[in-house]
Amino acid sequence: MNKILVPVDGSAASEKAAIKAVQIARKYGGDIVFLSVADVRGKFAYMGDGVVTLPVNHAQISAMLLENQTKMLDVFEGIVNTEGVKVEKKVLAGVPYEEIIKYADENKTDLIIMSRRGYSKVRRFFVGSITQRVIADAPCPVLVINEDDQ
Question: Highest taxon of the source (predicted)?
Fold first, then answer.
């Protein structure tokens, strides 16, 4: 188990996934990548005639989102005790599940450990689930830690 990818969104659920990843990395000698994806979709303006335009400050908004994700990872790394484990932090921009899968594939990840919040089946149907999409298309095994797991 050489490379463990842990998608992080700053939630308590992703903290639990990170803690589990550190335990596994310590036991099997693996390295961890904490990955956060700034979702820059939806930053477009739709005109009445159906024309899509970028807002004047789209680049500025995207840069701000990336900066916020980087700060969140810095704080997150301070919360999770990673002593004795090699940890890398990575921030990407894009559609979260697509970027997680792409990163795992391109970097020959051995295991993805991620969280899932306790949404009902109905809510997951309407809002979608990044975790569900990663499980379906990941190039490696995915260990899912539920928000309410101990």
Answer: Bacteria
